[in-house]
Amino acid sequence: MTLDAKKLTAAALLLAGFAVVYWQVFGRLINDWIVDGNYSHGWLIVPIAAYLVWERRARLVATPIAPSGLGLVVFAFGILMLLAGLKGSEFFISRVSMIVTLAGMILFLFGWGYLRILMFPLAFLLLMIPIPAIVFNRIALPLQMLASRVGESAISAANIPVLREGNVLILANTSLEVAEACSGIRSLVSLITLGIVFGYFADPRGWVRTLIVLSTIPVAILSNGARVAGTGILAHYWGPAAAEGFFHEFSGWVVFIVAFIMILIIQRLILRFAPKLPATPSRVPA
């Protein structure tokens, strides 16, 4: 058996072992993508990460294989994270351990050169993992209050009487509660993911990519506040039914599409005013 064949066999055996060890963890993760709308974008993360790996195939082939024994240490640390997460019923730690374990396998089998090339696709996989509930709640509550304030200001600007009590907007004929699901965190997470993808393909410079990603935050906040305001205005003129059922869900899709277009426009503006890149024969993926 040649050296390459031995490497491929070892990689296949490790991947099979990885699948056996993590199938329950990954199964629960898929269930979260199904039942939790805040993370429905998780279905796209693995295919995009796979494409990012494929895009680097020429660099991988050109990189010498230099296995590192330190990969076993990283691998063992990932397994310890898994055991700690399972023991303490902490899903976030056990899920992050998948990425740490994968990094250890790459380092052990192929070396630091391969790990550096694959670092971004590995880090990108973090976007498929729901953030811990304690962090989620600390983000969601301020977003609820902010969306309520933006909605109140916009409704008042439309000369519609409105009174805000916390996250509840009181109109003449109905009351609207800006619940956690309406806080905008769902669109925020999805738009940040889109911003990372757009930034990566738009420009190789780190500061430009970072600026594109950061621009998604105010877009998500403003678009969600506009959705709250629009719902309040419709409810004022057409009654509470405008804030429920089909109209409520449809407005979410409309606002997300508008936010998507806004990010595209901001991306174009950033690239227009950013200093031009020097001419190079080809672009090397980060």
Keywords:
286 residues; elongated; mainly alpha
How would you summarize the topology of this molecule?
Elements lengths: L2 H33 L6 H14 L1 H6 L7 H18 L3 H20 L1 H13 L8 H25 L5 E3 L2 E3 L4 E3 L7 H18 L3 H33 L6 H29 L13
Can you walk me through this structure?
- With 286 residues, the protein is mostly helical.
- It folds into two domains: 3-128, no CATH class; 133-273, no CATH class.
- It contains ten helices and three strands; from the N terminus they run H-H-H-H-H-H-H-E-E-E-H-H-H.
- Strands 1-2-3 form a three-stranded antiparallel beta sheet, covered by helices on one side.
- Strand 2 and strand 3 (175-177) form a beta hairpin.
- The longest helix is centred in the N-terminal third of the chain and has 33 residues, at 3-35.
- The chain is elongated and about 75 Å long.
